[in-house]
Amino acid sequence: MLGIVDRYLLSEATKVFSAIVAILVLIVASMLFLRTLEEVNVGALSVHLVLNFLALQVVRDMPNLLPPAFFLALLVTLSRFSRDSELIAMSACGIGPRRLLHALLLLAVPVALLTAWLSLVLQPWAAAGIHQIRMQQKEQAAQIAGLQPGRFYLEQRGELALYIGAIDRQQSLGDVFILDRRGDVARLVVSKGGQHRLEEETGDHIVTLSSGHRFDGDPGSAAFMIGDFEEYRIRIRASGAAQGVISKRSTTPSSTLLASSELPDRAELEHRLAAPLAILILTVVAIPLVALSPRQRSSGRLFLAFLAYFSFFNLQRLAENWLATGVTPAWLTSFWYQILILGVVYLVLLPESLWLKRLIERFSGAQAASLRGQPG
Length: 376
Fold this sequence. Notes:
Layout lengths: L3 H38 L8 H34 L2 H7 L4 H50 L4 E5 L4 E8 L4 E9 L6 E12 L6 E12 L8 E12 L17 H6 L3 H24 L12 H27 L10 H13 L5 H20 L3
Antiparallel strand pairs: 1-2, 2-3, 3-4, 4-5, 5-6
Helix pairs in contact: 1-2, 1-4, 2-4, 2-6, 4-6, 6-7, 6-8, 7-8
């Protein structure tokens, strides 16, 4: 059964946390919406996919919003208690930092579990949906901008000539003419229709023709071969440097990452686990960062709070990159920065610790008593 103080603390922290999450989601959604409109404006995204694309982006970014929102909510709640001298009243009633931590963990654990579900399950699902939409739009953009109807295209240093008379949104081609000189024998292909797609891994154009005619032979030579075909496929290499394989680790299910022994996969899995773990660690960090009394200087603690916040999330990327590249050993994991920030905060605040002052007073009193007991 929760006490009155515990319920009061949980109620206030929940209200502040809900308000901060709502504000952050609104800000992030607004920024993402503007970026999405820019993509629509340049033709990189269809209008009917805007809401779906925006929702997937918000779901993908939610696990990254909850830890800083929860940390800020705890600081705001405890600072308000300190400003109203409620922390002093609680301390006078025997409610110290340990009792506050116990009450706040009752809120932190459910939030951490929710964050873990969002990060391990929904985040890769949303990333896969975003990736699929982008690939579909990339195919359509390549179809419209890269292969336009009524134009001749010269590829492979002029060894491949392509003409497409018509092309529609369903990637259907019409009146196709291809002159291929890449082999020993020139090849002329004509067709009334076909299909076009963009290969995801390489960026190459794959043109598949149907029900056409093929002519093999060099111009001016009597050696000609003429034939009909039901299906003919040709690959047009992507212009420029060869494109690398798109990384799909962000779209990989967490169960697959758990079964993998590769360091990059492990770094991605620990990246997803870092968010729920951060909520628990930041809960422990937040309590000593708030001054007990409004008369105490709080500027130093406020600066330490901002320093801990920025160091926490900046070191996260560094730790995960070091683990993925093998700079740090696998047994160290990528969570070492969380323990480091926790230790540094408590070490900096150790001289102001009430527990340390009482320990010093007891030690000084015991030493004085032993000196008085010695014969003169």
